[in-house]
User: Fold TonB-dependent receptor-like beta-barrel domain-containing protein from marine metagenome.
Amino acid sequence: GRAVFMEEFWQHDISASYVLSDELMIYGGVKNVTGELPWITEYAFPHSPRGTFYFMGLNWGSN
Assistant:
């Protein structure tokens, strides 16, 4: 495949989860807290060109 060389890039992510019961856990976080933008290319994986990204969700099930 093609090789792409980029300058050094630091991305900081934060996530947390909380168990509400034996069957329910809530989680959320922020990816790329500082909003750093990587070099734009289709080879920038695993970094996203979107900048800061927020997420949250629920895990429901039994152990």
About this structure: The radius of gyration is 16 Å. The chain has a mean pLDDT of 82. The first strand starts at residue 14 and ends at 19.
